[in-house]
Amino acid sequence: MSPLQHREDAGTGFLARVRADLAAALQRDPAARSRLEIALLYPGLHALWFHRLNHWLWQRGLRLMARWLSQLARFLTGIEIHPGATIGQRVFIDHGMGVVIGETAQVGSDVTLYHGVTLGGTSLSKGKRHPTVGDRVTIGAGAKVLGNITVGADSRIGANAVVVKSVPANSVVVGVPGQIVRRASPQRTPDLNHTTLPDVHAAAIKDLLARVETLETYVYGKAKSKAGFTPVDDAWEETDYSI
User: Fold this and answer.
1) Local structure of 81: helix, strand or coil
2) Over the stretch 48-74, which tens digit does the pLDDT of each residue have?
3) b/e for 164-191, b at 16 or more Cβ within 10 A?
4) 14-192: CATH class
5) Beta-bridge mates of residue 228
């Protein structure tokens, strides 16, 4: 069975899944102090628990009831998950306010979503129009993943990235539109460190500036001029402006 053909395993009871949800939150949120605190106060988990009931109703044709309960869950948690979406095990929605997951979205297991994430559609077709997210993917705050695309397992989507094309497994995506950077080695644990995201545009500009300086030195014997903005130790140097 594919990781995204979802794990509604007959042998996995409701209480076992709740325990797994609590353990996942405890593992991935350093602010969490106890399972009781998580169960009572974490809206991301409440939204997922509502969704399991709503998805069960949706699959059995009770769609108006499922939609009504999903809107109640949205009102209570600030998280909107369409009852038709398919979500795997041990998914953790941290903080969660403003998360939107569309009807035909498929989310694998051990996925971590931060607040403001959208798994949205880009088509008026009633068919598959929302993303498929592989196992162990981390999607940073404010990121938008749009359309019938696939985010491969073990990938990381940077905060505020806009992803509109499929992402290979074990990749990092940053920027608008999202730029894909393949990782050199697999990442099998939830990856929460957003301070190490690559800046592909700055890297390209630095490389171009270095090439221009090398060419000018070759042609003229020295670099003719310095660029107005010059990156030094990852900071762009320039005079202060009065705004």
Assistant:
1) strand
2) 999 999 999 999 999 999 999 999 999
3) eeebebbbbbbbeebbbbeeeeebeebb
4) mainly beta
5) none
